[in-house]
Design goal:
Length: about 325
């Protein structure tokens, strides 16, 4: 197996038009790409060309009629919710966003690379089986989880979501699923208002959901302690075969939508902790996908720190 880290990105992601003044804007990716290209890690990345996910693959995690609902809103340029605006091209770009994560997963699952980062938009972790919300159209991480299980024969998958907002959509999709471990560390109280520590899964999935709400002002030390003392022991107990990261960088201290105080170095350390765990249990197989992060400086420096650690620069 090569030690390379793959990078999935497509310039069409910039064409998802959320309208003037929207926090989830194309400049997030422009700034992050420019920072990566200026970094020492850029030449070491194995570039992946995303291809669109199919409507059938979207239905791995969403209701059968969901894709058509999204398509109609995009064609008419009707917002899906008050904060989830779309343009005419947004449906096709959302398929390409999911597809970017799927192609990253292919590269890792087949052993072509050890790990991967998919720098995609629109993001996904707030999208529930039947509802788009929080800037998210299709739940990229959830669809990728099912894709790995159905098309690559992977058994147990762990999802680590460190976006500053609770990954309510991902939680909903896997809440009763014993084959998927979902962890979310997020500021609370904050949008979308879910993610209490009492939410632990139900039925056969009882105990495979782990939420750690954090107060505003939490920073690197507090997050690292949770990862070390709470998350990693829980992951070891679950023993996943594959690790996925919902890598939102809006817990950064510069982010305008939240009040946590993480630094790029903090995200680098969280990445190190996840890679060390993955080396123990998943043969190092990690796929990370961009979620939030709305300060251009904050998201771009955090993306570079994250990718440098994935590539072990």
């Amino acid at each position: 197996m090569t030690q390379k880290t793959s990078f999935a990105y497509h310039s069409d992601y910039l064409n998802h038009d959320t309208g003037p003044g929207h926090p989830e804007r194309p400049d997030r990716l422009r700034a992050s790409l420019a920072a990566l290209q200026q970094s020492s890690v850029w030449e070491q990345l194995y570039q992946i060309e995303p291809t669109p996910a199919s409507v059938e693959q979207i239905a791995y995690a969403h209701n059968p009629a969901y894709s058509e609902h999204i398509r109609q809103h995009c064609e008419k340029e009707i917002p899906l919710t008050y904060d989830t605006t779309v343009g005419f091209e947004s449906f096709d770009i959302a398929l390409l966003s999911t597809g970017g994560v799927l192609r990253a997963a292919d590269a890792v699952a087949t052993g072509e690379v050890k790990n991967a980062f998919a720098m995609v938009r629109p993001p996904g972790h707030h999208a529930t089986p039947g509802q788009s919300m929080g800037f998210c159209l299709f739940n990229n991480i959830a669809i990728t989880t099912r894709y790995l299980q159905r098309e690559h024969g992977v058994g147990k998958v762990a999802i680590v979501d460190w976006d500053v907002h609770h990954g309510n959509g991902t939680q909903d999709i896997f809440y009763e699923d014993e084959s998927v471990f979902f962890f979310s560390i997020h500021q609370s109280p904050l949008y979308p208002g879910t993610g209490s520590s009492r939410e632990r899964g139900s039925g056969k999935g009882r105990g495979t959901t782990l939420n750690v709400p954090m107060p505003a002002g939490s920073g690197d030390a507090e997050y690292i302690k949770v990862f070390t003392d709470v998350l990693i022991p829980a992951l070891r107990d679950f023993a996943p075969e594959f690790l996925l990261i919902s890598a939102g960088f809006d817990a950064h201290y510069l982010d305008p939508l939240a009040g946590t105080e993480l630094t790029a170095d903090g995200f680098a350390t969280l990445t190190d902790l996840m890679l060390a765990f993955a080396d123990e249990t998943t043969s190092g197989r990690v796929v990370s996908a961009l979620e939030g992060g709305y300060s251009l400086e904050g998201v771009s420096e955090s993306v570079v720190a994250h990718v440098e650690r994935l590539a072990k620069v």
